[in-house]
Amino acid sequence: MEIGIIGLPQSGKTSVFYALTGGKATPALRPSASGQAPSVGVAKVNDPRLAVLEGIFKPTKVVFPDIRYTDLAPSSQEFGKGLVLGGQSLSVLSTVDALIHVVRVFDDATVPLIEGTINPLRDISTMELEMEFSDMIIADRRLQKIEDTLKGVRAHEKDLLLQEQELFRKIKSGLENEVPLIEMEFSAEETKNLENYQFLTAKPLLVLLNIGENQVKGVSELEERIYAEYRRQKYKIVSLCGKFEMELAQLGEDEAEEFRSAMGLVENNVDKIVRLSYELVDLISFFTIVSGEVKAWTIKRGTTALKAAGKIHSDMEQGFIRGEVVAYDDLVQCGSIPEAKKKGIVRLEGKNYVVQDGDIITFLFNV
Ligand SMILES: Nc1nc2c(ncn2[C@@H]2O[C@H](COP(=O)(O)OP(=O)(O)OP(=O)(O)O)[C@@H](O)[C@H]2O)c(=O)[nH]1
Ligand SMILES: [Mg+2]
User: Fold this and answer.
1) Which of these, 107, 139, 105, lies nearest to 124 by C-alpha position?
2) How far is the CA of 246 from the centre of ligand 1 (A)?
3) DSSP 282-303
4) Which of 341, 268, 349, 348 lies closest to 303, judged by CA?
5) Residue 247, SS3 per DSSP
6) CA nearest 270: which of 44, 50, 64, 73?
7) Does pLDDT of 275 surpass 70?
8) Beta pairing class for 61-63 and 39-44
């Protein structure tokens, strides 16, 4: 699963990227310089169930689910002049599963402001307009193509095209009214058609308020105020001390925790944001315990046992016989697999079984 980090220039995207992925921070977090490739980093999702499974199975290794975050190269556009989302950034973003939108709240005279003042709501809508504009280009292009095709088309092919034209007109007019695709209503058939396009405003999105260390105290009021005035129902809002957390990412967990509580931060917001980004896309985890390793696997909700097995290895999918499945809660109650078997709550499931979040599965297969 992959998440793109977006936001206006100098909002703190790269700092947030390092805070989330714990990568080594480069000393040169410099103002917009162009021509750099996007960086990709990995964050592990701290699923508390894995600690419990570790207690039960005493494995030699625990493998957490992970998320890849992409930090775009700084925008090549001059400050506040025109589009932030262009060329390479756009092609990277079109392939990600979800977005984190970093919004500047921190106050620091040494970091230039695009529009002269700190105003998170304004910045949120500036960035959203850019996304809508970029989607409008996709819609326009498709509409143009449909019009061209309609000229030479036979009668029986016409209906489908006209339907599609109506769909894209609806999208265009929605975007013109600043409605993101994620808030528009589509039929199942339309949704299927739209999977062929990579609309930015159709992607799930988390708004991340990047606050300064001196703003921790007022953060709940700030979040409430933004929630009250922000018109998007589908987008969640969280906050993070981007720069501070980037520095903590270089320390050990205990030491980081000490600094956090000294700062008045009641919870580990990095972990929280990673978990929330995992929940943005409808993903679930199932677990395997094989040769001393407890391992989490990430799948879309609704995935069958057959496809889940294929996620581990294509041989497992090809030679699939069945899965031995026990629900996480059931296993925890019994305390061990043999005990669960004795109680008869380990199920044998076929290839069409829909895997549930937290299932512990042993696949049986032919090679
Ligand atoms: N005081 C303070 N400075 C911050 C904070 N977050 C980021 N900065 C500073 O703001 C500047 C820009 O941060 P970056 O993380 O590089 O921002 P960016 O959005 O990646 O910038 P571009 O990629 O150039 O668009 C850097 O000098 C950071 O140190 C913060 O929470 N507090
Ligand atoms: Mg950057």
Assistant:
1) 105
2) 10
3) TEEEEEEEETTEEEEEEEETT-
4) 349
5) helix
6) 44
7) yes
8) unpaired
Domains of the chain with CATH codes: 2-46+63-114+204-280 (3.40.50.300), 131-200 (1.10.150.300), 283-365 (3.10.20.30)
Ligand 1 — pocket residues by CB below 6 A? 7, 9-15, 29, 31-32, 74-75, 106, 108, 111, 210, 212, 241-243
Q: Ligand 1, from 11, 13, 15: best to mutate by most atoms within 8 Å of Cβ?
A: 15
pLDDT at position 352 over 80? yes
Residue 242 carries which side chain, given as an amino acid letter? G
Whole-angstrom Cα distance, residue 105 to residue 119?
7
pLDDT in tens, 62-104: 999 989 999 988 876 655 555 667 667 888 898 999 999 999 9
Q: For residue range 28-50, what is the model confidence (pLDDT) as tens digits?
A: 444 334 456 678 899 988 899 99
Residue ranges of the alpha helices (H) in the chain? 13-21, 48-57, 87-93, 120-152, 155-176, 188-194, 219-229, 242-248, 253-262, 269-280, 305-312, 314-318, 328-334, 337-342
Q: Which of 253, 247, 242, 248 is nearest to 219 (CA)?
A: 242
What is the mean predicted confidence (pLDDT) over 327-332? 96
* DSSP state for residue 346 in the 8-state scheme: P
> Which of 253, 234, 226 has its CA nearest to residue 122?
226
